[in-house]
Amino acid sequence: MTLTQLKYAVVISQSASMNEAARKLFISQPSLSLSIKELEEEVGMEIFIRSNRGISLTQEGEEFIGYAKQMVEQYDLMESRFILKKEAKKKFCVSMQHYSFAVSAFVETVKKFGMDEFEFAIRETRTAEVIEDVKNFRSEIGILYLNAFNQESLKKLLYKDGLEFQELLQCYVYVYMAKSHPLAHKETLTLQDLEQYPCLSFEQGKDNSFYFAEEVLSTYEYKRLIKGNDRATMLNLMVGLNGYTLCSGIISEELNGPEYCAIRLKPDEKMRIGYIVRKGMNISEIGKQYIDELLKYKKYAIE
């Protein structure tokens, strides 16, 4: 297995066909096909599915390409730094479920380290992609929650992927809604109180399992349900349709504005918000700073 073969495999995974990949790589299609065939024979598995409609990754191939990308990217960084003598910026990326307080912590971290020496990235995304990003080194840290319902399944998945969950805080579940909502004056709410209003839920794509739901009580049969994938859209739906979502109650007025509120949901349900990292990997100094910023929200935790 050579670095060249890995580069070929990565380019093929990003192309619609073997011919397209060959054009990108400036080699002949038969040479490319032979190189990938030899790679598949060496690793003992089929990486790509060929058909008259093009080329796609097998399930094993998706995992293989994840590792191949890491090796190619690391080589490119080394080549840039030590051969081409380019000063590369250090990178820090976080993937997370949709938590405004985690975004606020990211903002404070960026302010403290500055952007002259660092390249930052933040991804608000689906639960499975948070896990995949950390597993495949795309992000150093992932932010998600566990509760009594999903923790057994997610912990098994994290263990299989070589990841570990570190708890930041435990909190009760809150109903997040616009202050213009007819129920916004209540001190507490129940799901029965909310029946006539649409529940807003972040869609999870092909990983649409209850265990991957970003909101607790995912198995509850809501009379009205709207799925979306964008936090700004969710906020608009709260105002336009009197929608609501279930959350940690830790909100950021600086980012979302003062037009929204969080009301305690009864009966009590608990969620454990934390971060995931690769097992045994040392957290960078900037990663430690980000975690310190997150820990400032422990004041919202259950005593």
* Helical content class: 25-40%
Element string (H = helix, E = strand): HHHEEHEHEHEHEEEEEHEHEEH
**Structural class estimated from helices and strands:** alpha/beta
What is the C-alpha radius of gyration, as a whole number of Å?
A: 22 Å
Number of E-state strands: 13
Strand order of the largest sheet: 4-3-5-13-6
Low-confidence stretches: none
Q: Total number of helical segments? A: 10
Beta-strand share of residues: 15-25%
* Main β-sheet description: 5 strands, mixed
Overall average pLDDT: 91
End-to-end distance: 54 Å
Shape: globular
Task: Briefly summarize what is shown.
The protein is an alpha/beta fold and 303 residues long. It is built from 10 helices and 13 strands.
Describe this structure in words.
By secondary structure, the chain is an alpha/beta fold. Helices cover about 40% and strands about 25% of the residues. It has ten helices and 13 strands. It has helices spanning about 5-15, 20-25, 30-45, 60-85, 100-115, 125-135, 150-160, 230-240, 255, 285-295, and strands at about 50, 55, 90-95, 120-125, 140-145, 165-170, 175-180, 190, 200, 225-230, 245, 260-265, 270-280. Strands 4-3-5-13-6 form a five-stranded mixed β-sheet, with helices on both faces. A four-stranded mixed β-sheet has the order 8-12-7-11. A two-stranded antiparallel ribbon has the order 1-2. Helix 1 packs across helix 4 and helix 5 packs across helix 10 (about 285-295). The longest helix has 25 residues, at about 60-85. It is globular.
